[in-house]
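Quick one, tokens below. Sequence please?
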């Protein structure tokens, strides 16, 4: 089947954000009825997204792809963007478990986003984000790499090859924790993973 190309088009994302921002400016946020509807819409959308994400997990487990996936997990950067210099740990898992973990990370990010938006709204009286964040999480889920593979039927190759390449940090901020995980190239059970020593030797050879 394959996903519609428009939903992953960067120009569509930019246009969507601009239209949403302009629309939010035209809403009378001082009207209590409008504010109540916005709150109901926002929290209903979050519940829908979390429910859909758990549904995606059920779909992944139903497919039960136990192909072995081995990759070198990258070191987590510090606040300055630098790593501790330690060799990356080799992770061995299955396609099913990897995919489930990716969706769980998306759910965790969504919950974090809900907490942030709730504090911004109820504590600091920001109201306009309610509109955009009622729509963005649904879009983020439908364009998540796991959804592209399991819902839309895209082939897990290229940008969708596991383990997934880290997304641009700016896109994550724009999508309010839209997801994406940081990982090094993977191997399956048919090809052994490169050891840290071999990786260092290869890097020196290239230099």
């Amino acid at each position: 089947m394959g996903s519609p190309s428009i939903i992953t088009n960067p120009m569509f994302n930019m246009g969507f954000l601009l239209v949403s921002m302009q629309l939010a400016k035209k809403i009378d946020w001082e009207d209590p009825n409008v504010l109540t509807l916005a709150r109901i819409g926002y929290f209903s959308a979050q519940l829908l997204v979390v429910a859909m994400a758990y549904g995606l997990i059920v779909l992944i487990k139903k497919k039960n792809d136990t192909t072995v996936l081995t990759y070198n997990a990258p070191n987590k950067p510090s606040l300055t963007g630098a790593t501790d210099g330690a060799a990356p740990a080799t992770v061995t898992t299955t396609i099913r478990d990897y995919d489930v973990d990716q969706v769980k990370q998306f759910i965790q990010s969504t919950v974090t986003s809900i907490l942030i938006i709730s504090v911004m709204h109820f504590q600091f009286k920001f109201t306009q984000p309610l509109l955009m964040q009622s729509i963005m999480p649904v879009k983020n889920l439908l364009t998540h790499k796991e959804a592209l593979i399991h819902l839309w039927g895209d082939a897990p190759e290229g940008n969708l090859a596991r383990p997934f390449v880290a997304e641009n940090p700016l896109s994550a901020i724009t999508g309010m924790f839209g997801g994406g995980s940081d990982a090094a190239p993977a191997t399956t059970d048919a090809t052994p993973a490169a050891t840290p020593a071999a990786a260092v030797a290869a890097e020196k050879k290239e230099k």
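Confidence is low (pLDDT under 50) at residues 169-185, 189-207. The two ends are 43 Å apart (CA to CA).
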